[in-house]
Amino acid sequence: MARLNINGKTVEVDAEPDTPLLWAIRDHVGLTGTKYGCGVAQCGACTVHLDGQAIRACSLPVSAVAEDQKIVTIEGLSPDGNHPVQVAWRALDVPQCGFCQSGMIMAAAALLAEKPRPTDDEINEAMTNICRCGTFNRVRAGIHQAAAATAGTTG
User: Fold this and answer.
1) Which fold, 2-75?
2) Which residues contact 75 (CB under 8 A, 6 or more apart)?
3) Looking at the domain that runs over 84-153, which CATH code has it been given?
4) Which residues in the chain land under pLDDT 70?
5) Could you tell me the residue ranges of all domains in the chain?
6) 87 closest CA partner among 27, 149, 131
7) Helices in 1-155 by DSSP H: which ranges?
């Protein structure tokens, strides 16, 4: 039994210690916004925040997550879907098929929390998620738009 803090709520997950966090989130907690893509931490579809850092949930066992660590999924990023990254994504029609986008949004939100005004090079370095549709230019534009929208609130 693992106790996890997911989106501000402590939940008990009856899973083997080596169960990937992704499957605990999806199958045991029922939050399906975090996607399975590759299973080897390459594509980023499973990106969530762990204590504010973007991590790949498909390769992290639940036993490696302490009860006091805070996990945030796409469902917990914003109560009403109006996080600046989500707003920018909608305004710019960033997703094409959309499968990878919850992971992209989580990676972008973590980047902006760390670097409120990232350069193109910083975005390219931080955004290692894979999008088969190739919407990387719109992702970059969305990150810049979200950064501009939060410029007055980020110190």
Assistant:
1) Ubiquitin-like (UB roll) (3.10.20)
2) 7, 31, 33
3) 1.10.150.120
4) 152-155
5) 2-75, 84-153
6) 149
7) 21-23, 74-77, 84-91, 101-114, 120-126, 136-150
